[in-house]
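agent> fetching stored inputs for the pantoate docking request
agent> found them:
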Amino acid sequence: MTTAETAAPTGDLARPAVVRTRAELRDALGAWALSGPDASDRRAVVMTMGALHEGHLQLVRRARQEAGPSGQVVVTIFVNRLQFGANEDLDTYPRDLEGDIAKVASAGADVVFAPTPDVVYPDGDPIVRVRAGHVGEVLEGVFRPGHMDGVLTVVLKLLHLTRPDVALFGEKDAQQLLAVRRMVRDLDIDVEIVGVPTVRDPDGLAMSSRNAYLSDAERQVALTLSRALRAGAQEAAAGHGAGAVLASASGILNDTAGVVVDYLALVDPATVDEVSADHTGPALLLVAARVGTTRLIDNQAVDVAAPAERGVAPGQEASRE
Ligand code: PAF
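agent> prediction call returned; pasting C-alpha cells
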C-alpha cells in the first residue's frame, strides 16, 4: 500500500485511512481539522510497533473515549530500530500490517500511520537524540543500554509528526511510561499522557507481542512472572513490609526452572528508584525475566502498609522483613 486511502469518517468502525508518508499523514490530520470538530474533540495517538493484541486494542478504545466521538484517533505502527540492541529481535519482531489494520478498525481508529524506516529516519540514524538519563539507566537500562533513549527519540518524533492532544501508553511498560512522562514534563511538550492498565490473558499472563515467541511449555513457565507479582502484592495486602514483598515474589521466581530473572525490584512509581526496606505507601513491583529466548517484563502496583498499621512498633520491624 503506497498511497493514502480516503479518510474514513471519524468515530465509526470503518477501515481506517492508512498513511505511509509524512505528506499523507499531514493530509489526514488536516482533513480532520477541516471537518469542523467540536471544541471538545481531540486528537488521540496510540504508538505501537505492530503485532497488535488486546492490550493495544484497549489503548485504542481508550483513545476513542479520550478523543470524543468526533475526535481523531491515530495509531502509529513502526518497528523502531533505535530501541533494539545489537543482539535483540529487530529482524524477527512479528509484523502483520494487514491484520493490525483490521484489529484497530474494530477498536475505533481513524488513521493508521505505518511509515517505513526511511520516512521516520530520512537522514539515517539521527545524530541528535533524546537522552532518558537516570530513568533510562536503571532496571531495563542495565540490560538494554540505550533502549530508553531510542524509545524517547521515536516517541518525540511521532509526537511532532502526529501532533496529538493526548497520547496513550500501556502501564505494562511502566519504566517507558515514566520516561515518556518525564520527557514531556522536562521538555515542555504540550500533550497529555494517559497510562492504560495492563491487559492479561485469563491465566494472568500480561499481553505482549513477544508472547508469540513462546512455545506452549514456555508459556506455562512464563506464568511464573504474574504469579510472583501477585504473591508480592498479597504480602503487602496482608500488612507485611517491602522485604517480605520481595522475598515472596523472588521465592516463586527462584523455585521455577526455566525462568532466568534479569531483575525483580520494588520501586517508587514516581522515579523507578528502588525503595528502602522501611518504605511505606504505594510502590511498583517490577520483574524482567527470560523464558527460553524470550524476554518478558511485567509489573504490579502494591501498597506497603506503615509499621503501625502492620502491628509493628517503630524500629521493631518483624524479622521476616
Ligand atoms: O511500547 C512500544 O511499543 C514502543 O516502545 C513505542 C512506544 C511504540 C516506541 O517505539
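agent> quick read of the result: The chain has two domains: 17-196, 209-307.
agent> awaiting further instructions
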